[in-house]
Amino acid sequence: MNRAEVDGVFQRDCTTSTSAPASDLVMASISGAAALGLLVTGAVLMAEDAEYAKEKIDGSGLGVVFLSMSSLPILTGSIWGPSAAYGYTNAARCVELRERFPTCASAPECATRGLCTWDSPRCVAKTEADCAASEACIKHGRCTPRDGVCVASGDVRTGP
Hints:
single chain, mainly alpha, two-stranded antiparallel sheet, 6 helices, 6 strands, rod-shaped
């Protein structure tokens, strides 16, 4: 997923789709169901082994095997579950930020850093007007666009 924010800066090409986290949630659910099935089967087999022990008959020992096998789906579910949570959270944050800031010019980074023009995959400082109205120019003298950011005019190099 393309994150909604990178280093505190809103990324307009963030992912709003929840299809990937939905797939993760399905996989986490399947892992949980498999683990539960193995745990129940193991418990039943161990109970039968306990009954056999009362009668001095050797049990199969399969209960321990099933309980041990349940660790694999528990492990995989512990990976899929947080992945789904991250995906849903990030997609919701992306939707929220896009609604609050429908254009680069309306995003806070435009006022603070001059990142006012969309240049896929992000907002950049492309024109002198982008930089001129920003805090970067007014407070810090970074009024010239270079490589998508506002820099001080002394930082602009010409030629190789």
